[in-house]
Amino acid sequence: MNIAYEVPVADGLAIAYPVALVAGSKNAAAAKKFLDYLAGPASPSVFAKYGFIVPVK
Predict the structure, then answer these.
(1) Would residue 2 count as lying in a domain?
(2) Which pLDDT belongs to residue 15?
């Protein structure tokens, strides 16, 4: 992948990717498991691997 321009972290906007369980989901258990994974200790390293900056809680 070629990066044409990288915005410095201090100059960029904070970008959020909201996620939530949907009421009446046919796959509520799987969705809950996914949300638990996202909130768990393993996900920050996966996000970082793909170039996301993970804020410290």
Answers:
(1) no
(2) 84
Distance between CA atoms of residues 42 and 40, nearest Å: 6
**42 is a domain residue:** yes
> Which distant-in-sequence residues (6+ apart) come within 8 Å of 47 by Cβ?
54
Q: Residue 17 sits in which domain range?
A: 9-49
> Alpha helices, DSSP H only, in the chain?
28-39, 43-49
The letter for the amino acid at 39 is A
- Rounded Cα–Cα distance for residues 4 and 32 (Å): 38
Q: What is the mean pLDDT of the chain?
A: 89
Total-model pTM:
0.67
